[in-house]
Design goal:
Number of domains: 2
CATH class of the largest domain: Alpha Beta
Radius of gyration: 27 Å
Shape: elongated
Largest sheet: 6 strands, parallel
Number of strands: 19
Distance between the termini: 47 Å
GO biological process, one term: ADP-L-glycero-beta-D-manno-heptose biosynthetic process
Helix content: 25-40%
CATH topology of the largest domain: UDP-N-acetylmuramoyl-L-alanine:D-glutamate ligase
Low-confidence stretches: 253-260
Subunit structure: Homodimer.
Strand order of the largest sheet: 5-4-1-8-9-10
InterPro entries: Bifunc_HldE, Cyt_trans-like, PfkB_dom, RfaE_dom_I, RfaE_dom_II, Ribokinase-like, Rossmann-like_a/b/a_fold
Mean pLDDT: 88
Strand content: 25-35%
Catalytic activity: D-glycero-beta-D-manno-heptose 7-phosphate + ATP = D-glycero-beta-D-manno-heptose 1,7-bisphosphate + ADP + H(+); D-glycero-beta-D-manno-heptose 1-phosphate + ATP + H(+) = ADP-D-glycero-beta-D-manno-heptose + diphosphate
CATH architecture of the largest domain: 3-Layer(aba) Sandwich
Structural class: alpha/beta
EC number: 2.7.1.167, 2.7.7.70
């Protein structure tokens, strides 16, 4: 992507998603219902809060405007927002119940959900305060996302006023809509209705490409959109731009739960557009993000690393994004461990890549799930091999190594040994060449185990250089 950190404003309905996780092995003797033995209880930000979670996970700076009640759930909301580092303007209305949705999950399936909330429109005074805050701060945001769950925050008047304000300052507004009257969102850049919502809003049954285009055209006309978008679940996302319909397909490895997938699409589209991606690249990015999220249970978030892993599994990954800094690989290693991935580490100069290198790396990868390669920098190679080395610069060496199927990540280090890097990664397996038999292997005190791998006879960078120079 880029090093730019987007500043994104989210306005919408905040709520707490409450989960009771357990097992079900019997039916109640009191009534024909399942008895769930609850094992654990969790709470996360829901509604517009899930959009916020996704934006934070992607690396954006996030601010949220909303209206909540004056109750214990509101306190919980404020705590959760503080924990993720989102700035907020939350207006409390004394007679309002802050939304809380409780779900009982048994054996990875949702059994029942019960809601406690207010759904009436927020007070005119609250709308005026939100709009005043927006007028004063709109220039500090790159984009505005409206997450409408129909709980009363995004009233008809407030929504139109927010979009007008953003348009006056050339800020795009993206909307996850609710209800059937999309004129409420007049002037937005685009909406993200799913197929069912689009059919209800347009009264058009979408059953082929022709009806899909008719629905997209009608949505664009009703809401005066910059582009018209409909999400199509497993079929991807359709977009109408300049009269042409394009469908960006998606691939989900396995769908566990679509809860929150719409929030992820809204967040990832907003994030990508802030980085000056065109609409088609932004849609592809959002599709990948959604593909990751539907493979998780419960409202979930997605990170850039997870998207890259997913792209790699679909053979779409960018080579450069497999080259990591020390800080990036440290964060990534923690996440891999949380996923119970077995991490393998090896290191070397890998100056002129040859069969011996590839064979060695392929064996190293076989010892675990993820292979991280520490690559000596140019300065480090010179100290080890002399002033005539390396033949290939560190950037070229890292790029070529990252393109190998057996290498997951490459990290360039400048020290004489990779000890500091190994300490950050804390690998399960440390791999070195068989020539280290009987010698101390740097980092073996950190890794859980050390393995030595035989080299392919007659294959080395020195031999290759000698051959080029005509030296026998």
């Amino acid at each position: 992507m880029t090093n730019k950190v987007p500043n994104i404003l989210v306005i919408g309905d905040l709520m707490i998603d409450h989960y009771l996780w357990g097992n079900c092995e019997r039916i109640s003797p009191e009534a024909p219902v399942q008895v769930v033995d609850v094992q654990k209880e969790t709470t996360v930000l829901g509604g517009a809060g899930n959009v916020i979670n996704n934006l934070v996970s992607l690396g954006a700076n996030v601010c949220v405007y909303s209206v909540i009640g004056h109750d214990e759930v509101a306190k919980e909301l404020r705590t959760k927002l503080d924990e993720v580092g989102a700035k907020s303007l939350l207006i409390e209305e004394p007679n309002r119940r802050t939304s809380k949705k409780s779900r009982i999950i048994a054996s990875h399936s949702q059994v029942v959900r019960f809601d406690n909330e207010s759904k009436n429109d927020i007070a005119p005074s609250s709308q005026a305060l939100l709009l005043k805050e927006l007028e004063e701060n709109i220039i500090s945001f790159d984009i505005v996302l409206l997450s409408d769950y129909g709980k009363g925050v995004l009233t008809n008047d407030l929504t139109k006023a927010v979009i007008n304000c953003a348009n006056r300052h050339d800020k795009k507004v993206l909307v996850d809509p609710k209800g059937n009257d999309y004129s409420k969102y007049f002037g937005a850049y685009f909406l993200t209705p799913n197929k069912k919502e689009a059919q209800e809003a347009t009264n058009i049954t979408i059953n082929d490409e022709h009806s899909l285009k008719d629905a997209l055209v009608k949505l664009q006309k009703v809401a005066n959109l910059g582009v018209s978008v409909i999400t199509l679940s497993e079929d991807g996302i359709a977009v109408l731009k300049e009269g042409e319909v394009t469908i960006k397909p998606t691939v989900a490895r396995e769908v566990y739960d679509v809860t929150g997938a719409g929030d992820t699409v809204l967040a990832s589209l907003g994030y990508a557009l802030c980085l000056n991606k065109d609409i088609y690249d932004a849609l592809e990015f959002a599709n990948l993000a959604a593909g990751v999220v539907v493979g998780k249970l419960g409202s979930a978030t997605v990170s850039l690393d997870e998207i890259e892993e997913y792209k790699s599994s679909l053979h779409k990954s960018s080579i450069e994004l497999h080259i990591k800094t020390f800080d990036e690989i440290e964060r990534l290693s923690l996440r891999l461990k949380a996923q119970n991935k077995k991490v393998v580490f090896t290191n070397g100069c890998f100056d002129i890549l040859h069969k011996g290198h590839v064979s060695y790396l392929n064996v190293a990868k076989s010892f675990g799930d993820v292979l991280i390669l520490g690559l000596n920098s140019d300065a480090s190679v010179k100290r080890l091999k002399g002033e005539s080395r390396p033949i290939n610069c560190e950037g070229d060496r890292a790029y070529i190594l990252s393109a190998l199927e057996c290498v997951d990540y490459v990290v360039i280090f400048d020290e004489d040994t990779p000890y500091e890097l190994i300490a950050k990664i804390q690998p399960d397996v440390l791999v070195k060449g068989a020539d280290y038999e009987g010698k101390e292997v740097v980092g073996s005190d950190i890794a859980k185990e050390t393995k030595l791998v035989e080299f392919v006879d007659g294959r080395s960078t020195t031999n290759t250089i000698n051959k080029i120079n005509g030296v026998n």
